[in-house]
Amino acid sequence: HSGFVAIIGRPNVGKSTLINEVIGQKIAIMSDKPQTTRNKIHGVYTKDNSQIVFLDTPGIHKPTSKLGDFMVKSAIGTLGEVDAALFLIDASEGLGGGDRFIIEALKKVKTPIILVMNKIDKIEPEALLPLIVQYKDLHDFAEIVPISALEGNNVNTLLKVLAGYL
Ligand code: GDP
Ligand code: MG
């Protein structure tokens, strides 16, 4: 189970926190050098014989300029080249326009998208299901996994689910 995984989501949803939690002390590569003009490697997770390369795709948000529009298209291009993508959302904030914009953009790719509902430590357990229903209504996600990146809850499950797509 080795492959490339893009991490997408609005600012502050917890992308960096998740990567830190996953990579932990096992950092193999951590580089800010652009891998291509549009990707940068966020981190590499290595366990046993498998290796997962996490790619940052910073460009997916509602563009406010021509440059922004270019970045969105580049990010979509990246999504077409990876084995799977993690779409992080902040479960404590609810479904807003930022997430709706990203979900629209996701419809252009065939790559399996795993919806990662982060920050579940901040919500009541019974608030989760209605939120899942809202997101499911908008897109046919390959999987839906609730986590707390900060507390490390369910992150191992997420890695196992992800491995099934690599
Ligand atoms: P990014 O912009 O998507 O990379 O988001 P960051 O990883 O920088 O996180 C933004 C903020 O959310 C930081 O203050 C994190 O500590 C916080 N955060 C991230 N994950 C969680 C979580 O699972 N639970 C809580 N309560 N806070 C989180
Ligand atoms: Mg970050």
UniProtKB/TrEMBL annotation:
GO terms for biological process: ribosomal small subunit assembly. Transmembrane segments: none annotated. It is found in: Cytoplasm; Cell membrane. Residues 147-149 are annotated as: G5. Its main location: cytoplasm. Residues 9-16 are annotated as: G1. Keywords: Cell membrane, Cytoplasm, GTP-binding, Membrane, Nucleotide-binding, Ribosome biogenesis, RNA-binding, rRNA-binding. Residues 118-121 are annotated as: G4. GTP binds at residues 9-16, 56-60, 118-121. Residues 35-39 are annotated as: G2. Residues 1-166 form the Era-type G domain. It is a peripheral membrane protein. One of its GO terms (cellular component) is cytosol. The keyword Transferase does not apply. One of its GO terms (molecular function) is GTP binding. Residues 56-59 are annotated as: G3. An essential GTPase that binds both GDP and GTP, with rapid nucleotide exchange. Plays a role in 16S rRNA processing and 30S ribosomal subunit biogenesis and possibly also in cell cycle regulation and energy metabolism. Belongs to the TRAFAC class TrmE-Era-EngA-EngB-Septin-like GTPase superfamily. Era GTPase family. Monomer. This is GTPase Era. It comes from Paenibacillus rhizovicinus. The gene is era.
